[in-house]
Each structure stands twice: as C-alpha cells, then as structure tokens.
TrEMBL record:
Keywords: Cytoplasm, Lysosome, Membrane. InterPro entries: TLDc_dom (IPR006571). This is MTOR-associated protein MEAK7. GO terms for biological process: response to oxidative stress. Residues 92-258 form the TLDc domain. It comes from Caenorhabditis remanei (Caenorhabditis vulgaris).
Length: 313
C-alpha cells in the first residue's frame, strides 16, 4: 500500500476518481500509477506477496476488482469491438470458442460477418452443390466432421475458382477443432495452396489445399464420400488433421468471412473458359461486358444445355 500512497501524492498525485473515470484519456498516468503500485518488471520477485497478504488486500480493498474490471472493459472490450463474428445462420460444426479462435486469425476486414455458403445438412450431400455455392464467392472456410468425430478444415484466403490452377496466399491456414483446437500456418515453402477441380482426366478431381497428386494435408474427392489427410505437409506447420490417411465425411460446411469481393478480370475469363458449353448470355452480364471490351468474340447468344456435373447425371 506504500506504493499506492506514492501514486496518489506529490507530482504523481492522482485521485481514485481520476483513475476510474479517466479511462483512455489518462492511460499514461494510469500506467505510471500501476507501475508504482505493483513494481516494474525487474521487481516482480521483490513485490510477490504471500497468498494470505493477497487475500487480505482484496478484503480491505473491495473496490479493486471493480476497478480492474472497468479498466479491462475500457481498454480491451470496448463496445462495438467484439472479437466474435456474427453468423447469418447457426453452425452445426463450430461453437463460440471455435469461432473466436478462427476469427482471430483472419484479416481485420473479414472478422465481422460470416455467411453460410454450403452445409450438407441444409443443401444436401452433393459435391456439385458445394462447387456451385463456393465457386467465385471469395475467401472461405471449409469445416468438416469425419466419421471418427474429428473436426478440422482450412481457410482459403482467396476463395475457390474451379480449374487446374492453385489459388491463395500465405494467409491460408489449416485448423483442428476437435478433439483439441489448433491452427497451422503456411510455411511459405510452396505456392500450392487452394485447389478445386472436377471432371478432368489427368488432374486430381476434388477440393484440397497444400498438396498434389495423392499427397495432401486435406483433400476431398469429387465423389464426396471420402478424403485424404497426410501428416506434416511441407506447405504448413506440422499437423495430422484427420489422424487417418483416408477419412469418411459426415458433415461439412463452407463459410465466407466478410463481404463477397468483386470478381477480377482473370476470374471472369476463367469462368467463361471453364464452362464453354453454356452461352455467355447465361453468365454474369458484367463478365460478358468486360470480355467484349477485351476483344473476346461472342460466337453465339443461343442457350445451350450445361454439361451435367458428376452427381447430376
């Protein structure tokens, strides 16, 4: 208590009302007062008190817990600065703690609102429906539960665009939610991040991240019944998400954090090339206008039936 007296006398004099009501405006003075009260970092050992003295301190200073709580709320839990995202629908795979952990790893502009793009419980267990719902929709979480009860997934920093090319950046990461929570950052050793492809003869068909051929830390086959999971991928920090090389899918969800970004010219061109059997009139009118400005010839405005995807046959 002697240090407290020093903090409230002389040139460092500061009333209790100033400490409590000053808030952020008196942060420097508050910090100096706390240092005087509890000592600097080098004095931690000297200022350590027996637990009995600490109990006595709290019993004789009943306002201290309220003061500490007030300071914490003013400095950390400011109104409107919630660390929790707002979901447009309830997740069947993520609890509040899961959401909080994942949200803390996102860019700041993607932490406020999350939109459900796909859930096999809601949209049906269909790979084609998953592709339709996530293709070109922006950054995305893929979260799943295996038949063994493990929950895991990954964050696609640039979302998905069906085709043979990898997408994403080192902002991509893997995560595990059960039996324990953990995140695994990109190592920067490869650019093979997010991959989505289907109905190809010589390319892997499915959805995955950080791998190639049959070597992936996370990959779901387009048959949508099973997936691959190898341990300790070079693309990410060491992990073994499924704890089995071949896992079976029970539940899966896709979420977009933040707003849907505008399509880039490259994305518009790729979508047109990826689906040549549909007339451009059925595509995004904005994409058509951009391609016409770029000099890409529109051969026909007639409607043609789209080639069915695997599970639409």
């Amino acid at each position: 208590m002697e240090n407290w007296k020093k903090a409230t006398n002389g040139k460092d004099k500061m009333t209790r009302e100033q400490i409590i009501d000053g808030g952020l405006g008196h942060f420097d003075t508050l910090a100096n007062s706390l240092i005087l009260c509890f000592g600097k970092e080098k004095d931690v050992t000297e200022n350590t008190k027996p637990i009995e003295e600490l109990d006595h301190f709290f019993s004789t200073c009943p306002l201290f817990p309220y003061t500490a709580s007030f300071i914490y709320q003013r400095l950390v839990e400011r109104p409107g600065d919630s660390k929790m995202p707002t979901l447009n629908e309830k997740s069947q795979l993520m609890g509040n703690v899961d959401q909080l952990v994942l949200n803390s790893h996102l860019p700041f502009d993607r932490r406020k609102n999350w939109t459900l793009l796909y859930s096999n419980a809601k949209h049906g267990h269909s790979f084609s429906q998953l592709v339709k719902n996530i293709n070109g929709q922006g950054p995305c979480f893929i979260v799943m539960r295996s038949m063994r009860g493990r929950r895991f997934g990954f964050f696609a920093s640039h979302g998905f665009l069906a085709g043979p090319q990898y997408r994403g950046s080192a902002e991509c990461f893997l995560f595990q939610l059960a039996p324990k929570i953990g995140t695994f950052s990109a190592t920067g050793r490869t650019d093979n991040y997010v991959y989505l492809n289907y109905q190809q003869q010589q390319m892997p068909n499915g959805l995955g991240i950080g791998g190639y051929d049959n070597v992936w830390p996370f990959f779901i086959h387009e048959t949508f019944d099973s997936g691959l999971s190898q341990k300790n991928s070079s693309a990410f920090e060491p992990c073994y998400l499924a704890d089995e090389e071949h896992f079976q899918i029970k539940n899966i969800e896709a979420w977009r954090p933040g707003e849907k970004p505008q399509k880039t010219f490259e994305e518009m061109m790729a979508e047109a090339e990826r689906d040549p059997e549909r007339s451009i009139i059925d595509k995004d009118p904005e994409a058509r206008a951009v391609m016409e400005m770029a000099g890409k010839t529109m051969h026909s405005d007639a409607y043609r039936e789209k080639k069915p995807m695997l599970d639409e046959k």
